[in-house]
Design a protein that fits this description.
Layout: H1 18-22, H2 33-36, E1 44-46, E2 49-51, H3 54-70, H4 84-90, H5 96-109, H6 113-119, H7 125-136, E3 150-152, H8 156-161, E4 164-170, E5 175-180, H9 186-196, E6 199-204, H10 207-215, E7 217-219, E8 223-228, H11 234-248, E9 250-258, E10 261-268, E11 271-278
Parallel strand pairs: 1-9, 3-7, 5-6, 8-11
Antiparallel strand pairs: 1-2, 4-5, 9-10, 10-11
Helix pairs in contact: 3-11, 4-7, 5-6
Length: about 300
C-alpha cells in the first residue's frame, strides 16, 4: 500500500497554515502537522477559542489574566431590611433593654454590636446566625442539611477566604448550598456558577458550624488545587498555567474573577486542577498546602 503525505491530512485541503488560522493566538507559528499527526498534542479550548498547544495557551491567557486582574467587581450596595439588633429583638432573642445596653457598650468601647452582645451573654452564635439570616432575607442552616460529608471540587482556599462551607451538593440537579458565616459573598456564588455551571444557593451558619463542616469536606478524585500567593505579572501567571496544562494534559480551561482572586480551572486527561491567584496576600489561616513541583512552561514563538 502506498502512503502519501495527503493520507495523514483531513479530507479537505485546509492549507499548511490551518493551525495558525485556527489557533486563538494570532502569533502562533505551529504548523498543520502538529494537530493531525497521530500522537501530537490536540490543544485545549477556552470557551469557543482553541489553542493548539500549552505554549500558545500560556501566551494567549495573558490578556484574559491582565483584564481580570485589573478589573474591579462592583456589587450593588444592599442595605439590610433591618439592623441586626432589631432582628434579634423581633425574633424574641433580645429584650429592648438588653439591646440598648449592648449598643451603649459597643459605642463606649468601640467594638461591634455582636461582640458586645456575646460578651454580655445576651445572645449565642445560633441566635446571631438566625438573626443575620432574617436581617438579609436568606435562610439559616436547615437541620436536615447539617452534618453531611461533602466530596467537592471547589477550591478550599476560596471557601476559607470567604468563610463559606459547602453544606449540600447535588451533582444530578447541579445545585449547591453554601453556608456563610458573616455575609453572603455574591462574587463567590457567581464565580462558582461561572466555572462549574452549578446553581449556588446561600444560607447562614455559625462559626462553629463552619469549622465543623470544613472538616467534613473532602476533595474529589483526580482533583488538585494550587493557590499562588505571589502570582506576579500576567505573563508569569500565564507561564504557571502553561506548566499545569502540560502536567494534566489539559483539554479545557475556564477563567473567573472571585473578589480578590483569579480562578482558573483546567480539565485534562490526568485530572482537574484549580489554580487560584491571590491578588492580595492570603492570611495564613486561609492557606492550604499545595504542590509546588509543577514548573512554569517556557514559551517561545520562534
Amino acid at each position: 500500500m502506498n502512503l502519501s503525505l495527503k493520507s495523514l491530512l483531513p479530507p479537505h485541503d485546509l492549507g499548511w497554515n490551518r493551525v495558525r488560522t485556527a489557533c486563538a493566538l494570532p502569533e502562533c507559528h505551529n504548523k498543520l502537522l502538529t494537530k493531525y499527526v497521530p500522537g501530537s498534542r490536540t490543544g485545549l479550548f477556552v470557551g469557543e477559542n482553541w489553542y493548539c498547544s500549552p505554549d500558545c495557551f500560556a501566551l494567549g491567557s495573558r490578556n484574559t489574566l491582565a483584564s481580570l486582574a485589573s478589573g474591579c467587581v462592583v456589587e450593588m450596595p444592599r442595605s439590610p431590611r433591618l439592623s441586626l439588633g432589631l432582628a434579634l429583638v423581633s425574633k424574641g432573642y433580645l429584650s429592648e433593654d438588653q439591646y440598648r445596653s449592648a449598643v451603649m457598650r459597643s459605642e463606649r468601647r468601640g467594638e461591634s454590636l455582636e461582640t458586645a452582645l456575646r460578651e454580655c451573654g445576651f445572645t449565642n452564635e445560633k441566635q446571631l446566625a438566625a438573626a443575620r439570616a432574617a436581617q438579609w432575607g436568606y435562610p439559616a442552616l436547615a437541620q436536615e442539611l447539617g452534618g453531611l460529608t461533602i466530596e467537592t471540587d471547589l477550591p478550599l482556599s476560596l471557601l476559607r477566604a470567604h468563610r463559606a462551607a459547602p453544606i449540600h451538593d447535588s451533582p444530578k440537579s447541579k445545585r449547591l448550598v453554601l453556608g456563610f458565616v458573616d455575609r453572603v459573598e455574591h462574587g463567590l456564588l457567581q464565580s462558582i456558577e461561572q466555572i462549574t455551571g452549578c446553581r449556588a444557593e446561600p444560607c447562614f451558619i455559625t462559626p462553629a458550624e463552619f469549622a465543623e463542616q470544613m472538616e467534613r469536606v473532602t476533595a474529589m478524585p483526580n482533583y488538585e488545587e494550587a493557590c499562588i500567593d505571589e502570582p506576579g505579572t500576567a505573563a508569569q501567571m500565564g507561564r504557571t498555567l502553561g506548566g499545569w496544562a502540560v502536567e494534566i494534559g489539559a483539554r479545557e480551561a475556564a477563567f473567573a474573577k472571585c473578589n480578590a482572586f483569579l480562578w482558573t480551572r483546567m480539565l485534562g486527561k490526568r485530572g482537574t486542577v484549580d489554580v487560584i491567584f491571590a491578588l492580595k496576600r492570603v492570611p495564613a489561616a486561609n492557606r492550604i498546602k499545595v504542590s509546588t513541583a509543577v514548573p512554569e512552561v517556557t514559551v517561545s514563538l520562534g
